[in-house]
Amino acid sequence: MANKAHVGSFAVRSAFIRGIEAQPVTVEVTCTSGLPHYEIVGMADATVMESRTRVQSAIAQTGFESPRMSITINLAPAEVRKTGTSFDLPIAVAILAASGQIPTKGLEGCLIVGELGLGGQVLSVRGGMAYALLAEQEGRCLVTAPEGLPSGLRCATGAIASLGRMRHGVSELPSVDGTARRRASAARGTDAAELDYRDVCDQEMAKRALVIAAAGRHGIMMVGPPGAGKTMLARRLPTILPRLDDDARMEAMLVHSVAGQPTDELEWGRPPFRAPHHTISSAGLIGGGRPVTPGEVSLAHRGVLFLDELPEFANNALQALRQPLEEHCVRVVRTEGAYVFPSDFMLVAAANPCPCGHLGDPGHPCTCAPAAVERYQSRMGGPLADRIDIHIDVARPASSKVIEGGRGIDVSDACGMGSAQMRDMVAAAREFAEARVRRHGGSEAPLASFEAAALTSFEGIASRLCMGGRSIARAARVARTIADIERHDLVTRDDIVEACSYRGRAHG
């Protein structure tokens, strides 16, 4: 059929990822008489230009005939630079439709994305959630690889594992029930073993601080000697956080999808937990690269970002955290425009008190010079520390209690609160806070719910600690969370004293 110089043209709808959004693109193909060659126009980068080889091989390997004609491929709008491998499948489909080798019925209502292997297999591309959202907005059927179809979507889907499946038209492609996939994923996730705070012995003060942090979504800094349990405490924080609601789950899945990260844990509502190594670059932490992709602060959106050994991180990377902590979003500006990534996360940081790690540890003398201690601690001080709501010292646990807990002897007494009890406390505090906000119509001033004695104590403490406006506001927020945990309509003096005790290290 293709050898009879079937002159024609056809256009299909596709898209590519820019930031965390799928940008629509119309793939136009024209087959005309002339020397056989492929030409792609429309500001395509090197990755898109390489699709010519993959498309030609896939067409030949799946039993179709490669048109011996002059083929021009236009990616509209032409003024926007295109990146990625998502155009392989739509280019191949448009060529086959223009050359009369496949039925065209139904193609006008599809959004087609996918990478092609040389043998014609359709491979998934990053950003499946973004493509699905675009297809839903445009009222189209998303056609892509089966593994590229996310769960829980309302748009129609068509799964295509090989280009050869297009021989009978797009209407013959099997659909995928995203809701059923989400239920299956949830069933698998429910059975998964979880970490538990029952494994952490003799750290009840730290657990109390983590409950406060989880209830109010506050940042927390833990400082203590090696082996005190800082990492164990941090890694169990997601176990006391509520499941993500549908909106938060979709937001987190979108960011992970465009970054090429798995979304299995997110599909059933588990908050994300990210723990990058301290050698990470500023672009890896905040976002950037070519093409621009989300960083760890965005991958932790709606979840937890854990920075272990905080003083070992590069200073420019740490200082770049200040804007995401304040604005809950990241703005990356490049010559081609600005990219905005969400970054509403809980920051959990851990550090040793000095280079050797034993400053203040009664069982191990510190061997660091005073100047070395000062330099080390200065890396985690300043503007970033001022933006972390809760600062706690984590002491080394008693050896006897650790051994008893490990042997299972009198575990409830040795290890204290477990994740289930802490999770109940967090949920009850959030419910109380929501009910309180509804009673006041959401217009309550920050310090209006303080008792007179609490305000008097707050003024004295703030003056002694030389607290600035940001510190005062953050201490007030922590005090309000403590009052919610204790189910106090008004913040009491005890609530504000406890809240200010968590600011002591930040102010020397």
Q: Summary?
A:
The chain is of the alpha/beta class and 508 residues long.
How would you characterize the overall build of this protein?
This protein has helices at 46-49, 51-61, 88-98, 128-138, 178-190, 204-216, 230-235, 246-258, 264-267, 282-286, 296-299, 315-319, 322-327, 370-378, 383-386, 399-407, 411-415, 419-440, 452-464, 469-485, 493-501, and strands spanning 8-18, 21-32, 37-41, 70-76, 110-112, 115-116, 122-123, 141-144, 157-159, 220-223, 273-274, 287-288, 293-294, 304-307, 329-334, 337-342, 346-351, 390-393. With 508 residues, the chain is an alpha/beta fold. The protein folds into three domains: 2-181, Ribosomal Protein S5, domain 2, CATH 3.30.230.10; 208-397, 3-Layer(aba) Sandwich (Rossmann fold), CATH 3.40.50.300; 444-508, no CATH class. The chain has a five-stranded parallel beta sheet. Strands 1-2-4-3 form a four-stranded mixed beta sheet. Helix 2 packs across helix 3, helix 6 crosses helix 20 and helix 19 packs parallel to helix 21 (493-501). The N and C termini lie far apart (80 Å). 44% of the residues are buried. Mean pLDDT is 89; it is low at 1-5 and 189-193.
